[in-house]
Each structure stands twice: as C-alpha cells, then as structure tokens.
Amino acid sequence: MPKLVHLIEYFTGPVILSTVVGIALLGLAFLGRDPEGSPLIPILIALCGLLAIFAGVWAGVQKTGKLNTIRRAVATQVGHIIYLSELQFSQMAIAARKIELRRTKSPSEEEVLSVFASLAPLGNSVLVSAQNNRTLNWLEFMEQYSLMTLNKIEEIQKYMPFLEPELVELLGRLSDCYHFKEVRVTRAMPPGNQDLSYAAGFFSNYQSIVSEIREYFNRNLKSLSSSSPPMGMVVPVTPDQ
Known about the structure:
The protein is mostly helical. The chain is built from eight helices and two strands.
C-alpha cells in the first residue's frame, strides 16, 4: 500500500480534528480582528490555531512512523512464512531426487504428487532432533514446518489492529488449512501408506494459499522485509516425543 494512503489513514479522528480546530482558530483570528482594538487577542487566537495544527500534524507523523515500524515487523514474519514453504518443498524434492523441482516456489498438485510418491511417511527425512541426534521421519518433518508456520502467524496476529483485512483473511485460511490438521493427526497415528501420495492434495492446497500470500507480500510488503532468511530456520529441530 502506498505511503500516501497510510498518511491519509492516520490523519483521521483526533488528529484531523485538531488540525481543523487549528485552521478554524486562524480563520477566527483573521476575520474577527478589530482594526481599532488591541491586536493581542487575535494574535493569541492565531497562536493557538498554529499550535493545534502543529499538534495534529506531529501526531499524524508519529502514528505513521509507528505504523511503518509495525509493517516492517509484519513484512519480516510474512517473508518467513513464504520462506518456510519454499524450503520445505525444496528439501522434499531433493530427497525424492526431483532435483528439477527444488527451486519451484508454487508447485502444482501434479508436481507435489510426483515428489510425495517417492517419500515414505516413516522414512528418514533430512532433519535431525537436537535432543538425541535422531533423524526425523517425514511426518515429523512436516509437523515441524507446520508448527513454525503457525508460530509465525501468531507473531503477526499480535499486530491485529494494524493488519489489512486481506492479510488477515489469508492468514486465517492458512492457519486453518487441512494440511496442518492432517499433519497433527497422522503424526499421532501414522498411516499404513507406503508413500506420502495421500497427503499431496492437502499439501498442494497449503502451497496454493502461500502463493496468494506471496502475491500480497510482493505488492505490499516486499520493500519493507529483510532480504536474508531467518536465522535458525534452515535446519529446524524438534523435541523427541
């Protein structure tokens, strides 16, 4: 969203009221002056008007600065969500020997299926538990990425009063997507499937929502986000359960 829109958004309510009062006082000082009377009262009224205008402008600038700080924090967290989705699929594609798909940011359901068909749910993933050096299986792998993503969503939701409706709607759909629900269920009760094909549809839906978030990010937040990936997220770990 352009900066001008944020200025307009925050120069409302008490801020714009203060500015309007200031302008009204200036007008009163000019129109109500008595050429034969003392100029002191008009001058005082004019000064009050100028102070009111200054206070209104200053408050608007302060609020705009606060909003930009919040937007930078939100942009970073949204960038992390996108990064997690890309890294997750890249690691799975490499493990499935689908090297040509490792840089695919928005995989189709067919591409997801081709990767998932080569991975066994309880087979060794590329992640290792920090607690006992145990290699996580692919169900635990996906669970870790879902937990990290949900944590990022919670961080963003702390700024709820300042979030745009479009972002709130996208994050709500992501946090409620069936992929995350399925991961929780299958992690507790592993299926007997020989591969992850059964999960391809829900995972593809998750990636589709992230693609919409990426579009929003590119339109509104990219210039505010850090260009480097978040530290400590390249090799996520999990407590052994």
